[in-house]
Specification:
Helix 1 packs parallel to helix 6. A hairpin with a 2-residue loop joins strand 10 and strand 11. The chain is globular. The protein is built from 7 helices and 11 strands. The chain has a 7-stranded mixed sheet with strand order 5-4-3-6-7-8-9, with helices on both faces. A two-stranded antiparallel ribbon has the order 1-2. Strands 10-11 form a two-stranded antiparallel sheet. 32% of the residues lie in helices and 24% in strands. The structure holds 5-O-phosphono-beta-D-ribofuranosylamine. 5-O-phosphono-beta-D-ribofuranosylamine (GRF) binds next to helix 1, strand 7 and helix 6.
Length: 232
């Protein structure tokens, strides 16, 4: 018999997929959001695919109004909010966030439009397991206004970067990049929408590969290995 939650919904066992078949080793993904959450949605959709092998187990936001929280609730994923204003300083905010994420036992932690810089306490707690997506071809246009700055600079091509998170902002080893041409008449929103389409394609793929242990990092270089090589 399926277990029922207090609201009557069916609770899936951790080792069952949405369709009910047993899944040997479902990878646990925690997603951090601040806003709209379209990248989170891409992850939720990918996780809902039969045999995806991954489950989003917790969505955390730094503000209660983040639309991503609503997307998570609709997908019946646990949510939590950690507000910087509720903490005396950045370090205690980082520690609160770290402890909540750690309690969810993630295989991968994914920053999907999370607009806070995470301190060393957080990053060190999940070595090689934190991913971020950034709307530029790094190392160009780091920071919070990458699309606006690329347009202002007049570049002809920009794009997105999915990378591992280290202790510097928008800096860790690159997993995937995709180029997006700037078109005449682009404004920030229009260009960002096209960039996001690429992020929605690459981020779920990167999360899955990292969760499966298929990413090897040497220095700045992240390389994919085959499934057979994972066990070696
Ligand atoms: C994405 O472009 C991400 O790269 C950037 O913020 C945007 C978030 O979009 N950091 P959404 O909230 O996933 O729609």
């Amino acid at each position: 018999m399926p277990e029922r939650a207090p609201d009557g919904s069916i609770r899936r066992a951790e080792n069952q997929s949405r369709t009910g078949e047993a899944v040997a080793d479902v990878k646990r993904v925690v997603v951090l959001v601040s806003g709209h959450g379209s990248n989170l949605q891409a992850l939720l959709d990918a996780a809902a695919e039969p045999a995806s092998g991954m489950a989003v187990v917790l969505v955390l936001a730094d503000r209660p109004g983040a639309h991503g929280l609503e997307r998570a609730r609709r997908a019946r994923v646990d949510t939590a909010v950690v507000r910087p204003a509720d903490h005396p300083d950045r370090r205690s905010f980082d520690l609160a966030l770290r402890d909540l994420v750690a309690a969810a036992r993630p295989d991968v932690v994914c920053l999907a439009g999370f607009m806070r810089i995470l301190g060393p306490e957080f990053v060190r707690a999940f070595p090689g397991r934190v991913l971020n997506t950034h709307p530029s071809l790094l190392p160009a246009f780091r920071g919070a206004h990458a699309v606006r700055e690329a347009l202002a600079y007049g570049v002809k091509v920009t794009g997105c970067t999915v990378h591992l998170v280290d202790e510097e902002v928008d800096h860790g080893p690159v997993l995937f990049q995709s180029a997006v041409p700037v078109e005449p008449g682009d404004d920030e929103d229009r260009l960002h929408e096209r960039i996001k389409q690429e992020e929605h394609r690459l981020l779920p793929l990167a999360v899955r590969l990292l969760a499966e242990g298929r990413v090897r990092v040497e220095g700045r270089r992240a390389q994919l290995v085959t499934a057979e090589e994972v066990s070696r």
